[in-house]
Amino acid sequence: MKDMRDFIAEAEAVGELKRIKAEVDWDLELSHIAKLNEEQSGPALLFENVKGYTSPVISSVCTTTNRLALIMGMPKNTSLVELMREWVKRTAKQMPPQWVDTAPCKENILHGDDVDLLKFPVPKFFPKDGGRFFGTAVFVITKDPDTGWVNLGTYRLQVLGKNLLGTQFIKGKHADIMLKAYAARKEKMPVVAVVGADPLMFLMGAARLPAFESEYEFAGAIRGFPIEIVKGETVDLPIPASAEIVVEGEVDPEATLPEGPFGEYTGYYSGIGTTPRNFIKVNCITHRTNPVFWISTVGRATTDTHMTMALTYGATLWQGLEAMRIPGIKSVYCPPEGAGRFLAVISVKQMYPGHAAQVGTAAISTEMGAYGLKTVIVVDEDIDAWDWPRVLWALSFRFNPSRAEFIKRGRSTPLDPSLPIESRDITSRLIIDATIPYEWKEKPVPIELDKAIVKQVQSRWQELGLE
Ligand SMILES: Cc1cc2nc3c(=O)[nH]c(=O)nc-3n(C[C@H](O)[C@H](O)[C@H](O)COP(=O)(O)O)c2cc1C
Ligand SMILES: [Mn+2]
Question: Which residues pair with 411 in a beta bridge?
């Protein structure tokens, strides 16, 4: 899979995509169809007839595990945990991108007065939204002026004018760190925003890789071939060659415009009313002919964000624990219901006293965990991290509250509705050690079945009238 068109063809071939030919309004109707479809775990939707537009919109690309598997080139019915395991395995060795001279994303080039973001079928999603959001399934490309490190990050973008896009680079995100570096130099930050590309690149945009890691190199590692990139028309940034729509522009670190509100994966708006935020002044747009405009809904699970972050944040947490050389990690699971980030379950084969405690404190110190992870549950190796009935069993019968650790202060996110709206920089955390303490000499005696009798009974199952 190289681009969005490959995804459409492959998904359609296996019944994972439906075309909607009836006319649909970009104003609320389209997003509501997508959202209701996602609530039923429906297919990806390709809206071919958007009112007032000739080019299509695609939604619900990443909203099921099967479609994440398709994007990663894994078989149907691969579990989320297996996808994470594969992600960690493939990205152990990275693959740099490859420059090309000609690219489909240059089929149409718009400069000056021709630049108009509303030439594309940008939806309005929900009634309380501050406007139309161009960037939902988007990624933003920026470069650190001091080191040349290139970053891809998924940050929402609101249409604030025909050539203006409001941003929300949350504090400490890589685009925010880079913008501060431009501010120190009193320079504007060149940016590119991409809508529609190889869906893997969007997963990468949402992945919590550590600073200085390259999302392009991770994507190449997962694909097994280098991602093809091309130079911008007005900016010196690498752009995926087969992107559908490429917006080139600049951010003035000193200038803001009112942005938002827009819903989040928590099921809530992250603020009240508008917030002054930096914005992109768009200087050039390039796009493929009949570009596919990719969108993602927001709100409670399950949206693209939940599935994407369950995979990418989970994989990054797993990778972080491996990088710390902590032995015995069997599986990691960051449930999509918590958008893959507020809650983590980790299964460990304990090898020494305090091992489970080490896993818990390590998790909240990884790049992923240090940002907003609030609750960590550690279970023994006989329980798979994603096996909720067994995790609840451990929480009931192995866990004792005296073995929970309460941490008062850690980095939070302005999105967390469990904190007062005016003070969301800092959160507390809870590490729940639901393992049987390694050092106990007398451990609870598990009830085990007699293996021979089990076999015998299974062979009599039909005779007993049970099948
Ligand atoms: C659909 C979607 C929308 C997102 N919107 C934002 C956003 O507006 N601002 C933000 O800071 N992070 C947002 N995120 C989370 C970031 O993409 C994520 O934290 C990622 O790690 C950022 O890239 P970076 O680590 O290179 O900074 C969003 C994620 C998804 C999947
Ligand atoms: Mn990054």
Answer: 371, 426
**What is 81-294's CATH superfamily?**
Electron Transport, Fmn-binding Protein; Chain A (2.30.110.10)
Sorted by sequence, the CB contacts under 8 Å of residue 441 that are 6+ apart come out as none
Rounded CA gap, 385 and 346, in Å? 5
Q: Is the CB of 202 under 6 A from ligand 1?
A: no
**Strand-pair category, 329-333 with 343-348:** antiparallel
* Cβ(34)–Cβ(45) below 8 Å: yes
pTM for this structure?
0.96
Mean of pLDDT values over 386-391: 97
d(CA 298, CA 309): 13
Closest among 419, 397, 443, 268 to 339, alpha carbons compared: 268
Domain boundaries, the chain: 81-294, 324-433
Domain at 324-433, CATH class: alpha beta
Nearest to 105 by CA among 259, 216, 232: 232
Count other Cβ atoms within 10 Å, centred on residue 446.
7
> Which residue out of 61, 140, 149, 154 has the highest number of ligand 1 atoms within 8 Å of its CB and is therefore the one to mutate?
154
From 134, 149, 155, give the residue whose CB has the most ligand 1 atoms within 8 Å, as the site to mutate: 155
Residues 6 or more apart whose Cβ sits within 8 Å of residue 239: 103, 105, 141, 192, 194, 229, 230, 231, 232, 246
- For ligand 1, atom 13, the nearest C-alpha belongs to 155
pLDDT tens track for 126-175: 999 999 999 999 999 999 999 999 999 999 999 999 999 999 999 999 99
